[in-house]
Amino acid sequence: MSFPTKPFDITLPTNGGTSWALIGSSRSGKTTLLKYIYKTYYSKHISVMFSMNAQADIYKDMPKNVMVSDRFHPEILKECHQINAICGNKFPFWICTDDFVDKSIKNSPEITRMLTIYRNANMSSVQSFQGRTLMSAVGRNSCNYVAILKQNTPQEWESVIKEFLSMYLPPGMNMPQMISFCQEATRDYQFFMINALEGECYLTKLTRAQAGV
Question: In a 10 Å sphere around its CB, with 0-12 CB exposed, 13-18 middle and 19+ buried, how is residue 184 labelled?
Answer without folding.
Answer: exposed
